[in-house]
Design brief:
two-stranded antiparallel ribbon; 5-stranded mixed sheet; 9 strands
């Protein structure tokens, strides 16, 4: 399946003598994310050209191929590809080439001609530009080159005393530079739409992605606050109160729970009967007299048997008056004491 957007293939060429490696990195021209990597320290330039040809014709027929012209090795790869049917895929730049010089006795006149130059020169200025692209990518687009081999090479790159950024003495940077060769096309290429049908789009930075995640966290926090607000509104809900009591009782044996609840009720009753206003209000709400409330308090002081507490709902289910309920409780207590 041909990719919807033309991939960009960056190629860093070596001689294949088990020293530096030849490397290929392919990126998506729409997102600039890394799609594939190839790395070999034994492949010859001609075999590398064959590999590029096979990759292009089989999997990426609309790829743009940018090869570094670093002396004879890169030039030999380009020469092989120019004489193949993937020539139309090769990245090129239009430059002025001096084809003739004349001297009119006063000055030198140079005749120039517009020339299509394939690949990329490895000059100092060009290398500095590639390193600057790398700095920008590491600062703003780390998520777009999740590649083990690129990562491992980046870990071992260093700044030399002369200010040059390159690999350490016992490491390599070929994959990194093949990646930068691909990125050069995206950042610096001219007339990409007309020549290679590449339409450059806006790409999100790491910071923008972080802001999106932060936004989600803020929304999530709002949801939590909203849930808490709803719960506070329903604090008087009997079901919610029962659930809270059940949660408090978790891990407590049932007899201990009953005892604890009885102690709480007794303490509440004790505080209530000490206040005349509260005692009268409680008596009025339950159709009792203050004396009935005192009798109930005395019963609680003696200790209501568990059997009475567990069966208390049966007293509510019949038609007993409050006085009859209290008398029944007192009778049960007295029977328990006997």
């Amino acid at each position: 399946m041909v990719p919807r957007y033309p991939p960009i293939m960056g190629v860093d060429v070596s001689g294949g003598y088990n020293q530096d490696s030849s490397a290929i990195t392919i990126i998506d021209s729409y997102t600039t994310e890394v799609l594939a990597c190839l790395n070999s320290n034994s492949i010859s330039p001609i075999d590398l050209a064959r590999a590029i040809y096979e990759i292009t014709t089989r999997w990426y027929p609309n790829a743009v191929i940018n090869v570094e012209r670093n002396g004879g090795f890169g030039a030999s790869v380009l020469a092989a590809l120019i004489n193949s049917k993937v020539k139309q895929n090769l990245y090129f730049e239009i430059k002025d080439r001096v084809i003739e010089e004349t001297n009119d006795g006063i000055r030198i006149v140079r005749k120039k001609q517009k020339t299509r130059v394939f690949g990329l020169d490895s000059t100092k200025d060009r290398r500095d530009l590639l390193i600057e692209i790398l700095r920008q990518r590491m600062e703003y687009h780390k998520d777009k080159f999740i590649s083990p081999i690129i990562y491992n090479e980046l870990k071992q790159m260093e700044v030399k005393r002369n200010g040059k950024v390159e690999h350490s003495d016992n490491s390599h940077d070929d994959q990194v530079f093949s990646y930068l060769m691909a990125l050069y096309v995206w950042y610096e290429g001219k007339n990409l739409k007309e020549t290679f049908n590449i339409t450059k789009s806006s790409i999100k930075t790491d910071q923008d992605i972080d802001e999106v995640v932060t936004g989600l966290e803020e929304k999530y926090s709002d949801i939590v606050k909203e849930i808490e607000f709803i719960q506070k509104e329903n604090e008087d809900n009997p079901t919610l109160q029962q659930l809270k009591e059940t949660q408090k009782a978790a891990g407590i044996l049932f007899p201990d729970f009953i005892k604890k609840e009885r102690q709480k009720d007794a303490e509440i009753t004790r505080l209530m009967v000490q206040n005349k206003v509260l005692k009268q209000a409680y008596a009025n709400s339950h159709n009792m007299t203050p004396e009935d409330v005192d009798s109930l308090f005395m019963a609680n002081q003696k200790g209501i048997p568990d059997s009475v507490l567990l069966g208390f709902n049966t007293y509510e289910d019949n038609n007993q008056s409050p006085e009859e309920k209290i008398n029944q409780l007192i009778y049960d207590i007295e029977e328990e004491d006997r």
